[in-house]
Protein 1
Amino acid sequence: MNRKRATVTAIVIVALILIVIYGLLDPASTRFPRCPFFQLTGFKCPGCGSQRAIHQLLHLNIAQAFRYNACLVLFLPVLIFLILADRLKVRYPRLYAASYNPAFSWSLFAVLMIWFIIRNIFGW
Ligand SMILES: [Zn+2]
């Protein structure tokens, strides 16, 4: 149990540090690491624009975040659902089971792949 608590604490600390970094520094105008996939291929991966989108989300500029990475913004409710399903698994075991259903996971993966293809066709 202590190991699990230490892991969660480490994740929370890292998340808070990243929130501070992305809140204070704008990746659009600051030197941030570039996507290696984009650098190598010239194609945008599903995560391209995420750093800039996170910065905009932290400043509540939802529309601008959507322009940088629409998939990230649209997946936030899914992420919240997954976190809640995990945190409430004792009270709502069926919700937890649904969130770890392979069909659900494959559906998310399919959406990511469709996003990957569409954004490179239309230049999003
Ligand atoms: Zn990328």
Protein 2
Amino acid sequence: MDKCNSVELLKSNGLRRTPGRRIVLDRFIKSDMPLSAQQLHRKVSRQSNIDLATVYRIIKILLDREIIREAGIQGNVQYYEMACEHNPAHPHFECTQCHKLYCLSPTRLENTKMYESAKSVGDITETIIEFRGICSQCLKKR
Ligand SMILES: [Zn+2]
Ligand SMILES: [Zn+2]
Ligand SMILES: [Zn+2]
């Protein structure tokens, strides 16, 4: 099994397996790109009548349990992605034209000069590395 199972994941986190939670979590598991609450709502509203407020509530629960993580902000919109073993923390490429967030390969920062110098300043609680530019799809349209 190389992807999480939403039912198992809810169970192991002591969360009730409501249909809404399963549908939202399944979307995150299937997606290879970070999703915003609105995007998620648009996708799940085809299969259930779950409203946006509920999607936000479920996202909050999944965040609290560290099942998903914040992937970055694009145009004031927060994006989320799975935070499981199949999706280790990684930087993102943000396209300034189509506003997509692309996931990049994970990398270990420990022992790099950049990390050491950050550590010499104080305790690191979060590391955010982001690339910005124009993605190849947008470049083709030029
Ligand atoms: Zn997983
Ligand atoms: Zn683009
Ligand atoms: Zn990502």
